[in-house]
Amino acid sequence: CRKCPQREKCRVGRSNAKTRSYSITQASEKNLERLKFEESEYFQERMKIRHRIEEKNGELKEAHGLRKADSRGLFAMHLQMYFTAFTANVKRIVRLEELAME
User: What is the pLDDT of residues 53-84, one digit of tens each?
Assistant: First the structure.
């Protein structure tokens, strides 16, 4: 605070005020690159399809139990993921078949 140009206006350095700290982040070069990338057409096109992917991931997590692993180990988690995706796909196929028969 001693070197801050805003010291006279600031309440942080005063003894009778409650102590608060504020941090002002300046856009780093990496952030600026990311912001520039987010404005690109490529990024915009990918964001258009992202919600469909996230919706399916959310369904697997919420409706089919992928929120929590059933077993220990990476191999077991992979098996759980594959079986869950298989089950969700079979349910989708059955639903589509039922709609086609109507």
Answer: 999 999 999 988 888 888 899 999 999 999 99
CA 88 from centre of chain: 22
Cβ neighbour number for residue 24 with a 10 Å cutoff: 4
By the 8 A CB rule, do 84 and 65 touch? yes
Q: State how far the Cα of 67 lies from the Cα of 48, in Å rounded to an integer.
A: 25
Give the whole-angstrom CA distance, residue 18 versus residue 58. Answer: 43
Distance of alpha carbon 46 from alpha carbon 41, whole angstroms: 9
Look up the pTM and report it: 0.54
> What is the Cα gyration radius of the chain?
26
